[in-house]
Structures are given as structure tokens and as C-alpha cells.
Design a protein that fits this description.
The chain has 112 residues and is of the alpha+beta class. The protein is 48% helix and 14% strand. It starts with a strand and ends in a 12-residue tail after the last helix.
């Protein structure tokens, strides 16, 4: 398994995280990851209503901002939230964003 380039925890910038989370498609990807855990990019992108190339752009933006971790195994790429890294860098930020999106910190969906 190969790990794609990511910023280290101390190099995650608040402005980049907020920019990444400001797009509705990227926010939906983050919500899906928060609810389901690690998944392939193909599964995370199901029913987003965007082309594969646009979805790839969103995945790259989330990875480069430090919001997600992406690992490649063969032709598949697996994404997961960097919850621990984000919580250590910006305590409560991810929970606040997910709560505003209708997902409580328990991970159980609320009316969406």
C-alpha cells in the first residue's frame, strides 16, 4: 500500500481546511467518511452528481488540505478522515462542521 503525499499534522493550515470544507461536494464526502469510515474514492463519490475528473479534484483538495488521508493499493485509492490530526490541531472544528451539516459527534445522522 502506498501513501499519497499529505501535509504533516503541524503543517495543516486552518485556511486550507476551511477552504476545502466550504464546497458542498467536498463537505458531503467528509460527511460520508465521518459516518462510514474509510472507503474507496469510487464508493465515496457515488451519487455526488459530478464527473469522475471533478470528483478527483475534490479528493485531491481534501487530501492536500489535510482533511483526509489517502492510501493507494493497486488501482484503488482509500480515503479516511484525519480526525485525530484535525482534532489535535484545531480542537472541536471537525465536530462543529459535522454538527452544522446535521451529523452529531456520535456519528449518528440527524435529519439531513
Amino acid at each position: 500500500m502506498r501513501l499519497l503525499p499529505h501535509p504533516s499534522t503541524e503543517n495543516i493550515q486552518l485556511t486550507e481546511v476551511l477552504r476545502a470544507l466550504s464546497d458542498p461536494v467536498r463537505l458531503e464526502i467528509v460527511v460520508r467518511l465521518a459516518l462510514r469510515g474509510e472507503m474507496t474514492c469510487g464508493v465515496a463519490g457515488d451519487d455526488l452528481g459530478v464527473h469522475k475528473s471533478t470528483a478527483s479534484h475534490h479528493y485531491r483538495t481534501l487530501r492536500e488540505s489535510g482533511v483526509v488521508m489517502t492510501k493507494q493499493e493497486g488501482r484503488l485509492k482509500y480515503m479516511s478522515l484525519r480526525r485525530d490530526d484535525l482534532d489535535s490541531r484545531f480542537p472541536g472544528l471537525l465536530d462543529a462542521v459535522l454538527s452544522a451539516a446535521g451529523i452529531p459527534s456520535t456519528g449518528v445522522p440527524v435529519q439531513r
